[in-house]
Amino acid sequence: MKTIGADIVLQVLEEEGVEAIFGYPGANTLPLNDRLADSPIRHYLMRHEQAAAHAADGYARVTGKTGVCLATSGPGATNLVTGIATAYMDSTPLVAITAQVNSELWGRDAFQETDIIGITMPITKHSFMVRDPEQIASSLRSAFRLARSGRPGPVLLDIPRDILGTPDSGNERSIPENTPLPYENGEALVRIAEALNRSERPIILIGGGIKLGDACDLATAFVKKTGIPFVSTMMGIGSIISGNGYDLGFIGTHGNQLANSMIHQSDFILALGSRFTERSTSVIAKFAPLASVAQIDIDPTSIGKNIKVDFQWIGDIKDALVALSELVPPRDRSQWETRINEERALSAAKEGDDGCGEAGLLIRKIQAALPRDAIVIPDVGLNQIWTVRSWQCRSPRSLITTGGMGTMGFSLPAAIGVKIGAPEREVVTVSGDGGFLMNIQELATISSYCLPLKIVVLNNGHLGMIRQMQDLFFEARFTNCALGDTVDLVAVARGFGIPAERIPVHGNPDAAIARMKEAKGPYLVEAVIDQDTYVYPIIPPGKSNVEMISGK
Amino acid sequence: MAVQEHIISLLVNNQPGVLSRIAGVFSSKGYNIRSLCVAETTNPDVSRITLTSRADRDFTDKIKKQLDRLVDIVSVTDLTDIPSVKRELMIIGLRIKEENRREILRAIDLFGCKIVAMDEDYLILEVTANTDKTAAILKFFEPFGVEEMNRTGAIAVFRQPSGR
């Protein structure tokens, strides 16, 4: 068999350490699909291209490697878009390979032709077409380097079918690369440390960059050594194992009362790998009015993008934490600690059982039944907030969620990638009935590969978060939020070959959880949740982080 | 922060789609490009893009960082406060009447414009100047009857060879 372009693609994927790719074939991917049969790389056949991108994303988030998805031209490529945008917003390293129509047809509105480069420009770090077989290898290597370097993110490579099928000439040509920006020198870190040492009420803000920069251990050590309390953004949750005395919870719209209150009172914020989205800060003008802000990030464009910063350092988070550990000694801040402890007692009384009602109780019971390193993947909506508030992160990469894009339908396909990336760990998805229905076809993928996933659907018959917001802010006019109970999810799951059962509202979930735990393959539990189970406290639109409300 | 005209000079790889990516950075942030000039440099692999935008300094700094991040960008320079020579080319089609012919010809001489075509009641002027001056010249001729106008927007070179 002659070596063709598709073989070069697979050789480079092997070089890059890729073991699994997620895809859906089409006529134009066939040269690649054909050669995949002889490759050690496993191709997982998803049931929708969006799911392929989410699965590659989940695989990357749990392994720390670059995820790879493959789709054909036209609708295959456009179906990837939501998954690529999700990876972009959450900075997941992802290489999306799309097959394009033959070069001589390009630009003629050929069957299944679309300008996927143009479509994905705003949601990728870079997207480009390979126009010459001799550039396949260097283009693909560049794509991987780019996806991983600096602030990670998705890169799309479009390869025409004829180039995939062209015999290899052996004349590999490299393509030019732009040089990365130099990191800032250490003096800026010294100034940050000095300001931090002077501060009376400092707080560390943990963003998603800690996990992306593989700096969870360093961040944990820094917190322990300095004794400075920390808050997390939703993407930062789980970077430092929760449940220690320094953890104040997560900030923002659906965050904890304590975290929001303490960041509001702080006089210095050390932000590590966070871009300060409005989901965390609420109204920027009212955010942390007393605090100086030091922002450390690998991405220059994230510095000062959303809030004005007083100190900045651009570079690798690990380098920053190593240097700061030397420069920031522990010091007595007993007044600040006392104030935190007082607020902790106050907010615990206000929030009750995490403000998540019966849903929170169920999630805590599920976690208690599973091993310590189990991974949870919430979907988007009330289920996401219930999960991130109720699940105690006891090991790194144990909570995988889409914080930036908030993509409903993420959890089921992402869990496929997570389970394939971490087969030895228990993986549980928690979704609402809305998000679950958005990528329900992936039950077929789970079933066909017999992936032992624990699938929990919290079914309140509604788009719960929409319902809560309509209840609070739209005079309880519930429009277009009721999904009803017309679908028998248990029967549907069984139809896909997945054992399933329903736990009635207010029923005892223990026996069902035990059966789910013991299942050798996938298992679905549908928990019926009261439609009025909301999440509190919540920050109303236009209010500051300390104007949370705990009821109507 | 004060809003002013910013001239950004970019060296980019001469590749399809580069201009679209650059325009995308502006449009995704909700800012308008006022003028844009693109041409190959002495190196055919590299093009020079000169664009102007009205914005405050803070915004321009952010845009520069966003542009820097694009793979096909070689360099980004904000020329606003850097010594440089800036010019734009404007061509004006002007209707002339007997009673204002003398005044128009005198103004052409005074402004240093060039007549590139002329017949009895119509002439075409070529103006090369900085953007302020081309705007002033256009404003002067408008009452006489500007039938057509086209301008390139600013291009610029640094005063010092090490400028970029």
Low-confidence stretches of chain B: none
Average of the residue pLDDT scores of chain B: 90
Quaternary structure: heterodimer
How much of the polypeptide of chain B forms β-strand, as a percent range?
35-45%
Strand line-up in the sheet with most strands of chain A: 2-1-3-4-6-5
Number of E-state strands of chain A: 17
Report the span from N to C terminus of chain B: 26 Å
Structural class of chain B: alpha+beta
Query: Percent helix among the residues of chain B?
Result: 25-40%
Strand element count of chain B = 9
Categorize the overall geometry of chain B: elongated
Average of the residue pLDDT scores of chain A: 93
Task: Spell the H/E element sequence of chain B.
Answer: EHEEHEEHEEHEE
Q: Per the principal axes of the C-alpha atoms, what is the gross shape of chain A?
A: globular
> Could you name the ranges of chain A where pLDDT drops below 50 across 5 or more consecutive residues?
none
Tell me what you see in this structure.
The complex is a heterodimer of chains A (552) and B (164). Chain A is α/β, with parallel strands linked by helices. Chain A is built from 23 helices and 17 strands. Chain A has helices spanning 5-15, 30-36, 49-63, 75-79, 81-89, 116-120, 136-148, 161-165, 187-198, 209-212, 216-226, 257-265, 278-281, 317-327, 334-351, 357-369, 382-390, 411-421, 433-438, 442-448, 464-473, 489-495, 510-518; strands at 20-23, 42-45, 67-71, 94-100, 126-129, 154-160, 202-206, 230-232, 247-250, 268-272, 292-297, 311-314, 375-378, 427-432, 454-459, 500-503, 523-528. In chain A, the strands form 3 sheets. In chain A, strands 2-1-3-4-6-5 form a 6-stranded parallel beta sheet, with helices on both faces. Chain A has a 6-stranded parallel beta sheet with strand order 9-8-7-10-11-12. In chain A, strands 13-14-15-17-16 form a 5-stranded parallel beta sheet, with helices on both faces. In chain A, helix 9 (187-198) crosses helix 14 and helix 11 runs parallel beside helix 14 (317-327). Chain A is globular and about 75 Å long. The model of chain A has no long low-confidence stretch (mean pLDDT 93). With 164 residues, chain B is of the alpha+beta class. In chain B, strands 5, 6, 7, 8 and 9 form a 5-stranded antiparallel beta sheet that branches. Chain B has a 4-stranded antiparallel beta sheet with strand order 2-3-1-4, covered by helices on one side. The longest helix of chain B has 15 residues, at 131-145. Chain B is elongated, with a radius of gyration of 19 Å. Chain B starts with a strand and ends in a 6-residue tail after the last strand. The relative contact order of chain B is 0.21.
